[in-house]
Amino acid sequence: MSETVIDQPIDRSGMKVSDEVAIEIVGMNKWFGEFHVLRDIDLTVYKGERIVVCGPSGSGKSTLIRCINRLEEHQKGRIAVDGVELTSDLKNIDKIRSEVGMVFQHFNLFPHLTILENCTLAPIWVRKTPKKEAEADAMQFLTKVRIPEQADKYPGQLSGGQQQRVAIARALCMRPKIMLFDEPTSALDPEMIKEVLDTMIELAEEGMTMICVTHEMGFAQAVANRVIFMDQGQIVEQNEPKAFFNNPQSERTKLFLSQILGH
Amino acid sequence: MAGAGSFRREMLEAQAPPAARTGRLRWLQENLFSSWQNALLTLLSLAAILWLVAHVWPWFAHSVWDAGSLTECRAIIRETWGEGASGACFAVIRERWQQFLFGFYPRELYWRPTLAFVLMFAALAPILFAELPRRLRWFAVAFPGIAYWLLWGGPASVPLAVYAGFAIAFLVHRAVAARASELVALILAAAAMILWWLHLAGPVARALPILPLQPVGSSRFGGFTLSLVIGVTGIAFSLPLGILLALGRRSQMFFVTTLCVGFIEFIRGVPLITLLLVASFLLNIFLPPGTNFDIILRVIIMVTLFASAYMAEVIRGGLAALPRGQYEAADALGLDYWKSTRLIIMPQALKISIPGIVNTFISLFKDTTLVAIIGLLDPIGLTTAIRADTNWNGIVWELYGFVALLFFLCCYGMSQYSQYLERKLRTGQR
Questions:
Q1: Where does the pLDDT of residue B430 fall: very low under 50, low under 70, confident under 90, or very high at 90 and above?
Q2: Which of B333, B350, B425 to mutate to test the interface with A (most CBs of A within 10 A)?
Q3: pLDDT value, residue A1
Q4: N or C: fewer beta carbons within 10 Å in chain B?
Q5: Helices (H) and strands (E) in chain A, counts
């Protein structure tokens, strides 16, 4: 497991965890056919929290965050995002999805649209933002992720790291209240991981509520306020990063940490 | 410099590639005479081409353009080129080309299909070439009405009344959607439109005969006009219908899926000829007596349904080729089903499917010649009719060659356009 060193100082002044609930998951269960992927998940995320979810592959961590914006449907228990419960009501789902930004492992940019169009599409069609305004907004976010000069290119012409930063900008253009990251750096070359992590750190510094599935433990130590370890569809251990890494409680966590931090 | 380690002090600058090896001789050598086997194959191929040309060329060179019958043609060839010479008798094309193009359309009205043909390009241009202003697309919407009016004649109020149906549906939808749900509004709008078409459009159009043109019946349609009318209408309608069927087949709703799968499998499982025969002989039996359902319209419906089933499968292939991530990214941004289909999924799926779609278009266009079987006089039907004329009895190559040339020009055009479109839509350079 490669680990990217986070060496810059982190500005923690903007990172404030409020006591308002952003996401509430109670007794949530999910099956893929006969396979029980998520078992009795209970998780409360407060506004401003930066949560890193880790665990071995197949532990259900991606499925967990994909349930939060209904890319996967849970079968038991309840999930409420910003006070709105996820039901099969389509209007409700679209409402929640427009409040929750998501960044994928494989970027999933729209290859037939330019970078700028990728960013303005949802604001124009979902939020009904006038085109001019949406474009100005998008340029602002592209500047923030440091690729304004690529606005008129197509995703296929960009490097992986640039594409992932566009994907982050695209999600931000919807002004989401919560950001979900599903292994955002796993498909990137080592040299590009840093540029994406830096963007994510900036976002954390601004106080964004984030849930991040990642193996980047340096990132977890630098910005997370809580690390969650999952195995076999369950939350095995959660703690603030220092305690999590220095003093893990469960044997399973110790084994996992020794394997990924061992060298 | 001993030892395993080494390092570079200065990075190399990028250099221009070595000068390309050009020149015709080099090309010849590399492509045609690179080894003695290749040289042999090249010579053999050249010999075969020469032999073919030597045998076909005299046929063209001896062609006769001015004669009244095949016998006359043959006499002229014998006189000019001696006994035993063979030559083409293009006189038949010269005498009948108008029939090939317009069928039995009244001669003094030839300008109408010609004008419709020219306007067709004006209507197609803004659709085919995105660089043209979008406002021109309104003409593409108006074109079907204009073409109908020009081709079949009668008052312009008939197509206008048909368009009015859409306007009524739009107004009803807007009025109802404000007070009731979207679904109710859609159903009421569709009901109003159908009621208007069935019961009111006819009387209204008859009461207001604006700009009447001399009517021309479907029985006078023929030749290439007929092929184009059937082919172009079929193409225009089979694409949207195919898209809906493909989406329906992938739908989560049981009834929609079953209906679409049933339709596609049934239509694909039946020869087009069967459908055309049904259109020609059986459909009238099932319709209420007294209704006169135009034969060309019936054929267009069958051809469209047939092509749309194939189209649906071609587009389904494109949909299946899209990575799941595209659907998920669209969902995650909060786009609803129709928006993500229209903005994200379809543009990409259609782009992937371009070769298959154009393939279906081309085969649809060529399949229009099958209407000769049910007695419509398309170019193939006309060749039979012309050969039945005692003057031209026995003529084969010239007629079929001419028909083949016309079809080839159209189909090759479509193929070239599709390649242009593929090049234009290629956005990624990985």
A1: very low
A2: B333
A3: 47
A4: N
A5: 9, 10
